[in-house]
Structure formats: C-alpha cells, structure tokens
Amino acid sequence: MVTEPRRVTVSHAAGQYEVSIGRGQVGDLAAIAERVLPGRRLVVIADRTVGRLVAQPLKVPVLLVPAGESAKTRRRWADLTDQLLDLGLGRDGALVAFGGGVVGDLAGFVAATFLRGIPYLQVPTSLLAMVDASVGGKTGVNTHHGKNLVGAFHPPAAVIADPGVLTTLGRTHLRGGLIEAVKHGLVADAEYYDWIEAQAEPLLARDPTALATLVERSVRIKGEVVGADERESGRRAVLNAGHTVGHALERLAAYRLPHGEAVAAGLVVEGVVAEALGLAPEGLAADLTRRLRALGWQGTLPADDDGLLAAMRHDKKVRGTVIQMALPRAPGGLAAEAGGWTTATSDDIVRQSLGAARRLLDG
Prior knowledge:
Elements: E1 6-12, E2 15-21, H1 29-36, E3 41-47, H2 48-53, E4 62-65, H3 74-86, E5 93-99, H4 101-113, E6 120-124, H5 127-133, E7 138-143, E8 146-153, E9 158-161, H6 171-188, H7 190-198, H8 200-204, H9 208-228, H10 243-252, H11 259-276, H12 284-294, H13 305-312, E10 324-325, E11 328-330, E12 333-334, E13 343-344, H14 347-362
Parallel strand pairs: 2-9, 3-4, 3-5, 5-6, 6-9
Antiparallel strand pairs: 1-2, 7-8, 10-13, 11-12
Helix pairs in contact: 3-4, 4-5, 5-6, 5-9, 6-7, 6-9, 6-11, 10-11, 10-13, 11-12, 11-14
C-alpha cells in the first residue's frame, strides 16, 4: 500500500534536505533518486541481510557489506572507496545508503570523503535508523577505542523512510528504534514520552499509522535540535542521553550488544546519576525502567565497573579525564550546566549509580 508521505525539512549550514516518511516509497526509489539526484551515476551500499530481505528497484551497482557494527571500520571504508574507484565513479556520482544505521554511517562517511565529497541518499530500513541515525548528517566508523571516533558531518541529499519495510525487522531491532524514540521524548517532549507509552501495543504490533507517527515526531525533534546545532557544539548533546554508558556497554561487549539495548541500560544508569546529583526527582529512573520494560526490554548490567569506567573515558564528551553525561532533568528536559549541555560526573557517583541501577533492573 502506498501512502502520501509526511515531510519534514531539516536545515544545515549549506541548505536543507527533506525527510519523507511514507509506505511504498522503496518501490518508487528509482523515480525518487532521479528527482533528488538528477543525472547522477548511482551506486548502492547495503548490508547483506537487507540486500536479501528488502528489494530495491535501482538497476545500478550494489556494494554489499556485512551486517552489524563489525562493518563500521576504517578498513571497510577503504575497501568501499577502492571499489568505487574501480567502478570509475566520478564527481558526477552519488551513493544510496540502503540499510540500517551502520550502513548509513559507513556509506555517509564514504560519501563525505570520496573525491572530497559526493552526495548521498539515505534510505533507512530499520526503525532506529529512521527515527535517529539517518537524520543529522553525522557519519563515521568505529575504532578499537570506541564508536564513531573517526567521521565527518555530511548531510544527505534526502532521507526516504518507508515504514512498510519494517515488516521484516526482528523484534530486538524494532525495540531498538522505540528505545531511541523514548530518549527523544525524555529529553525534549514530555507529551511524546507519554504517547509512546500509551501506544506501546500498536507500535510493537507494527501498526503502520502508529509507526509513521513515531518516525515523524522523532524526526521533527531531532531535526529541530540538529538544525540549531549541526556540529554538536551545544544543544545537540541532548541527543547523547544514555549514550555515554550505552557506548561503553557496546564496547565492553565487542559490539555484539545491539545499540538500542545498550542505550536503554545507559538511560537507566544516567537517570540514576541525575537523581544522585540532585538534578532529577527521585523515581525518574524507576519510571523510565518501567516504560522500557513495557516495550519488552529485559536488559541488565554487567558487573564490571572498572571496565565500564575505562570504556566511558573514550566517549567524545570526556574532557581531560572527567566523564561528562547528557543527563535528564525530568521528562521533556535535560539538565544543563552553565556553559554547556552536559554535566561532569565523578567516578564515585558513577560507581554508586551503576550499583543502584543493577538493583533496579534486577528488582
């Protein structure tokens, strides 16, 4: 079924791009690509799983990468750029990132650096990528030190979000997108935060109208934030809520832990930190845990405080040796220190909060 797309415009320093949200768009991708990237020679980058499950009608070369975070490396970036050179792609070329957030980050980084920058079209096929990763122009790869530590800001020409492709999405990956949406509500929109809880059943059942509304509302939140702070020098840090701990958990698990699962645990821990620092009311973390459990999340925390603290020190927000977190103040708002949107924490507070979060999650 084809529906009239909902459209959200995202601004950036060089102009703007459109996020189009509607069922049936993937089937019309050739016409959309010609409209967005007229006359360009296209190459698709997709992961092997998506390539098997979701048909895309472009009759152009397709470069496949392994599914998952293991594909987001400098070596894979080099392999892809070499393949593009072997194909003879020039400055009249453009890429189509067809897949989840990993493909979007990787293909976007290839586009940002190939011939010093060519355009690309984001076609996210996971809910997490639709609500978050495909919007904002952040591209990059991982290193053994941590996630997304090598990259560039390179906005897409457009984002085509087709909720119809989510029928092939596994429950864990569906939940990952819902968790990221919960984060958006927690830091920016209390009414949306409550709407997600009220709509948990249809969202988990993949109701197309509920999913389209979720994607649109999250994209509007993220688009407004990144439009005001494209280079992550200020308010954009609010979108990092849950990610200081979440990225540390992913690193500790050698990136075998799905991003959404890690962020859920990170949100709970950072909620406890916010309470411990007197920035959030008592009970915020418990209420957040209840909401995440209602979405089917059953995560816990590893008993490795030293390992987690060491991994947190590789976070981009660290200043010197001080761990900084984007901490919730209350649903719909973030705690901001004078001069910044992140809050300095101490190792003692983090250790205490990890223990309290474990008790909360085990309770």
